[in-house]
């Protein structure tokens, strides 16, 4: 199992959600975040030193998937989130040790399978 964290442009969210749904991804958490990548944030000078005053608004998707869903999930996000301009975002993939569905007590891949599937 993997935990996929994707940072995307807010304007691409609808397209990405649709692509993920088509790829069979159901469970997803969405948060509004701010950050900066290689280009830095919006930088100002104060008494000779530079500091970041503003970050770029992004959307973070957190998706827990079983192994067979890792590649399709990444492909769906990349395909729908890319504009080709700097700031399109990033995807981080981490090993996921345990998942528990609280209602049933199911564990791991069973807990990731959509109910009724
Ligand atoms: N190394 C990182 N660690 C944590 N978050 C990051 C990292 N790189 C980027 N992010 C997050 O992803 C968002 C988008 O990053 P961005 O697409 O600008 O990455 P980049 O590496 O600068 O690529 P590009 O050159 O295409 O802009 C950032 O605003 C930040 O929230
Ligand atoms: Mg950047």
From TrEMBL:
SUPFAM superfamilies: GlnB-like. One of its GO terms (molecular function) is ATP binding. It comes from the Bacteria. InterPro entries: N-reg_PII (IPR002187), N-reg_PII-like_a/b (IPR011322), N-reg_PII/ATP_PRibTrfase_C (IPR015867), N-reg_PII_CS (IPR017918). Pfam families: P-II. Belongs to the P(II) protein family. GO terms for biological process: regulation of nitrogen utilization. It comes from Truepera radiovictrix (strain DSM 17093 / CIP 108686 / LMG 22925 / RQ-24). GO terms for cellular component: cytosol. This is Nitrogen regulatory protein P-II.
């Amino acid at each position: 199992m993997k935990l996929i964290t994707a940072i995307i442009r807010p304007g691409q969210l609808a397209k990405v959600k649709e692509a993920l749904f088509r790829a069979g991804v159901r469970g997803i958490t969405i948060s509004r975040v701010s950050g900066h990548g290689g280009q830095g944030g919006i930088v100002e000078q104060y008494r000779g030193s530079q500091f970041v005053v503003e970050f770029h608004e992004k959307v973070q998707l957190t998706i827990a998937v079983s192994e067979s869903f890792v590649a399709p999930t990444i492909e769906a996000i990349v395909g729908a989130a890319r504009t080709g301009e700097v700031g399109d975002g990033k995807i981080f993939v981490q090993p996921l040790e345990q998942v528990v569905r609280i209602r049933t007590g199911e564990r791991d891949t069973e807990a990731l399978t959509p109910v009724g599937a």
